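Researcher: I'm preparing a figure for a lab meeting and need a structural model of a single chain. I don't have an experimental structure, so a prediction will have to do for now. The sequence is pasted below. Please return the structure as tokens so I can convert it later.
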Amino acid sequence: MSSKINHSKPTDSEIILGILNNSSSTLRYLYKAHFPMILQLVMNNSGNEDDAKDIYQEGIIILHDKVKSGDFELTSKLKTFLYAVCRRLWLKKLSHKSRFSENIKDYEDHFAVETEIVQHEEKDQQLALMQHALTDLGEPCKTIIEDFYMHSKSMQEICEKFGYTNADNAKTQKYKCLQRLKKLFFSQK
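Model: Understood. Here is the structure written out token by token.
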């Protein structure tokens, strides 16, 4: 496990396994890997670097305790889980501070961040479904769709590559492929 951390980014399940095995290199990795994200969250929302370190430390402890409890089930990316935990901790700290200060701040912008995370997760899921549908699409449709939408090839280039008689025939084939792709994509949901 420790050699993986030094040479490549460990997977979420490797990190959880490392926590279960009391791996100090896993904890070191965690402290370095996602702290900048929490630092930005705290600094953008009335905090400083020390606040961010405290919040991140608490978030890591919560993750550690949950994993060690034995019934932890990761339903999102580990990065998202840590962000959500740290965000809640920071909002709790901010609301505690505001009770004792005269200015009451509007934390509406904090909720926008959570919405963005959820939207990002949904987009990741949509992309994974699309990739799966694209794989199931088969050839030549997969290559036609990739060439046109991902590699920005012209219909004339696609026509020549696949030996269609003209660009209109290639365009018709692309349309049929796109319809099949949509059908595959929506049948997965």
